[in-house]
Amino acid sequence: MPMLIVQARDAAHNWPRYNDRAIEVYEAGRNRLEVWLNERYPGLDPSAVMDERIEAAQQWLTARVPMMLRWVSDQIGASLGVVALSVLVLVISFQFMLLKGQVEEGLQRLIPREHSADVSDVRIQISGMLGNYIRGIVAVSVMEGIAVGVAMLLVGLIFGSKYALTVAVLAIFSPLVPYVGLAVVVATAGFLTYMTAQHSPLAGALVAAALVWGVDQVFDLLVKPNLVGRRIHLHPITAMFSVFAGYSLFGFAGLLAGMPLAASLKIILAKWVPTIGADATVRAPNEPLVLDVGQFASDAWKSIRRWSETVIEAAEHTLDRTDQP
Predict the structure, then answer these.
(1) How many domains does the structure of the chain reveal?
(2) C-alpha–C-alpha distance, residues 257 and 245, integer Å
(3) 276 found inside a domain
(4) For the segment 120-176, what is each residue's pLDDT rounded down to a tens digit?
(5) Whole-model pTM?
(6) Same domain (yes/no): 155, 302
(7) Which structural domain range is residue 304 located in?
(8) Is residue 59 part of a domain?
(9) In this structure, are 165 and 302 located in the same domain?
(10) Residues 271 and 142 occupy one common structural domain
């Protein structure tokens, strides 16, 4: 935390210098473009043409940016609404815990006696599933932040850039605002790398943005479905489908709520339609989450080794065929 505060203060202190450098980069790029246009089209006035194009671009952006910002704000509002609702649910849940006995007794009166045991069992399973989901999401977010931090440290070692910890902390919270959060982290990584790199700033910015985007895709498409889906008794393919279905039905909020809703529906159906019960191989283990993370890492390492052996065998086979007369 102290290092994060130091980096934030350093970025705020150097922000005027970064702003001046961004203006210098723009002016240098414009001058190079004007020189190129003069050489390519001698009778053309590059400055007038560029001013005309910039004005046209400003008019185009003026007409469309408000709609884009309105759409982004709506999605952010929906995501923040889910977060606020989650906090509200936690507060209400705490109050219910204080009145747990009275609430359960009152609800039991509303349920027919012959179904009370089944309903209670489903409630306990869904409650445990939600706890596993929250713990899994937190673990995946922290792991993604660590991975992004390591990637930015490597970029810093190669290009001499700074603020790896700042980008890593942003990456931890980016899943709360899907897509928009990723765009902010990628843009921040590229901008800070470009402004602080000791050499090859453009290459460093592109590498940093590509690495951050790649890490996010790996966690979204591989780690999250396998790790979180396993904790809530969902097959990885089902977990991915539930996220896509949640987005189609509920927008950005569905990206966060898709997996727990699918797991809750599965628990309810598996209770009263036992033939669709989950196979034992996809059910969540009873071990702590850290052991599940270790199991996932072990499986991933075995898959990488298997793929590398396949690639090596294919390469050797190709070389053998090439050496034949």
Answers:
(1) 2
(2) 10
(3) yes
(4) 777 777 777 777 777 788 888 888 889 999 999 999 898 888 888 888 888 888 877
(5) 0.58
(6) no
(7) 290-325
(8) no
(9) no
(10) yes
> Both 175 and 232 in a single domain?
yes
How far apart are the C-alpha atoms of 293 and 136, rounded to whole Å? 9
Specify whether the backbone of 251 is left (phi greater than 0), alpha (psi in -120 to 50) or beta: left
- Enter the tokens of residue 90: 């936690």
Number of Cβ within 10 Å of residue 149's Cβ equals 19
pLDDT digits (tens, 9 = 90+) for 56-100: 776 776 666 566 656 656 655 655 565 666 666 666 666 656 666
Looking at residue 141, its amino acid is: S
Tell me how crowded residue 140 is: count the other CB atoms within 10 A of its CB. Answer: 20
Q: Spell out the alpha helix ranges (H) of the chain.
A: 2-40, 46-98, 100-110, 113-159, 164-173, 180-196, 201-218, 224-231, 236-250, 252-272, 289-323
Lowest mean pLDDT among 5-19, 69-83, 157-171, 304-318: 69-83
**Is 173 in the same domain as 272?**
yes
> Is 231:284 a contact under the CB 8 Å cutoff?
yes
Both structure tokens of 307: 């793929």
